[in-house]
């Protein structure tokens, strides 16, 4: 179901993708738990779908949930948490809250610099996003 939802999203079939992603999230919450990595990935996928639909407030709510849960479960400097921080910063920028977005990306870059070697691919992409 998650793969089909992603296919729908890639085809621009936002409503179909949304319906399936919601089903996947609910099923994964029930079977795996709300803080399971697969559940969080599905929440992120729904957030991306909302972004494509211009539903940035709804996207932001999911981005915050995913980031906070990953921080708690995996730590602030885990690659998945850092990706979530990046996603939230992007959403904040879409919402016109550039100062918040820049502050979050600065934190993300700082954590990346502490976590990764200078040639790690996550570091240049985070620096680029901040720029």
Based on the model shown, name its key terms.
131 residues; mainly alpha; 80% helix; globular
Word description of this protein:
With 131 residues, the chain is an all-alpha fold. The chain has 2 domains: 1-54, no CATH class; 60-131. 80% of the residues lie in helices and 0% in strands. It is built from 7 helices and no strands.
Q: Could you spell the SSE succession in H and E letters?
A: HHHHHHH
Beta-strand content: under 5%
Instruction: Tell me the number of strands.
Output: 0
Mean pLDDT: 91
Number of helices: 7
Share of helical residues: over 70%
Report the major sheet. Answer: none
Query: In terms of structural class, how would the helical and strand content be classed?
Result: mainly alpha
Q: So what's the oligomer here?
A: single chain
- Tally of individual domains: 2
Pfam families: TPR_10 (PF13374)
InterPro entries: NLR-like (IPR053137), TPR-like_helical_dom_sf (IPR011990)
Protein name: Kinesin light chain
Organism: Decorospora gaudefroyi
